[in-house]
Amino acid sequence: MVILLSNDDGVYAQGLMTLKETLEELAEVYVVAPDREKSAVSHAVTLHRPLRVERIKEQVYAVDGTPTDCVILAVNKLLGKRPDLLISGINQGGNMGDDVTYSGTVSAAMEGTILGIPSIAVSLVVEEYRNYENAALFVKKLVEWMNTSPLPSETFLNINVPDREEYHHIKGVMWTRQGKRVYSDSIYELVDPRGKKYYWIGGVPLEDVDNGEDTDIAAVSRGFISITPIHLDLTDYRALDRLRKKGNLSL
């Protein structure tokens, strides 16, 4: 089995390296990741400048682009073979609720799915322990499970792991839906040393609007690993049916 790893925290991130070391027991592992942190870049692709790739060591590459750039380059140019599985992470911090629309971690898994590769995004909801080993151990178990339980077409898994001191402190695993969070979108207006204004967007979540028991947010808060299947087709079919019933719009 060939596994491709990427992330949005950068090629030297602890979570990525921990995952690599754990999965090397199962598979041939390649890493193609940004050369620096690229959090919250979503599904951006670099089109207006060249991309540089540095081989850090055998089967580990750094790219001066986005997580999506990394996946595209890895699959089409760098590996020389098609990966059987793409895993993005382990991200430092959760990707729950509306986080998935901003997350470079999630978008790398989305790009893998677009390219027809079974894909997973995994995040550690960091607290005091920063125990990436727990998340890596679960991903290893999940990879083994996926060998006999393939993902549905155009679907990838978004996984959030609660941060616990020991693996057995995690209460279990829940299949969840995406919750809903409201962000403050705080904008700081500051002045640089030359007297010019600049702005820093520093939004933090104010509240969980939808944290029902079957959501990713609720599962992690109760000490469970959350697994949310995410589909590439964003069509709201219920709304589509209602709108069609209203009749066609005229020009």
Description:
By secondary structure, the chain is of the alpha/beta class. It has a single domain, classed as Stationary-phase Survival Protein Sure Homolog, Chain: A (3-Layer(aba) Sandwich), CATH 3.40.1210. Helix content is about 25%, strand content about 30%. The protein has seven helices and 13 strands. The chain has helices at about 15-25, 65-80, 100, 105-115, 130-145, 215-220, 235-245; strands at about 1-5, 30-35, 55, 60-65, 85-90, 120-125, 155-160, 170-175, 180-185, 185-190, 195-200, 205-210, 225-230. The strands form three sheets. Strands 3-4-2-1-5-6-7-13-8 form a nine-stranded mixed β-sheet. Strands 9-12 form a two-stranded antiparallel sheet. Strands 10-11 form a two-stranded antiparallel ribbon. Helix 1 (about 15-25) links the parallel strand 1 and strand 2. Helix 1 packs across helix 5 (about 130-145). The mean pLDDT is about 95.
Question: What are the main properties of this structure?
Answer:
single chain, Stationary-phase Survival Protein Sure Homolog, Chain: A, nine-stranded mixed β-sheet, 7 helices, 27% helix
Q: What string gives the helices and strands in order?
A: EHEEEHEHHEHEEEEEEHEH
Distance between the termini: 55 Å
Class of secondary structure makeup: alpha/beta
Percentage of β-strand residues: 25-35%
Tell how many strands the DSSP assignment holds: 13
> How can the largest sheet be summarized?
9 strands, mixed
Mean pLDDT: 94
Strand order of the largest sheet: 3-4-2-1-5-6-7-13-8
CATH top level? Alpha Beta
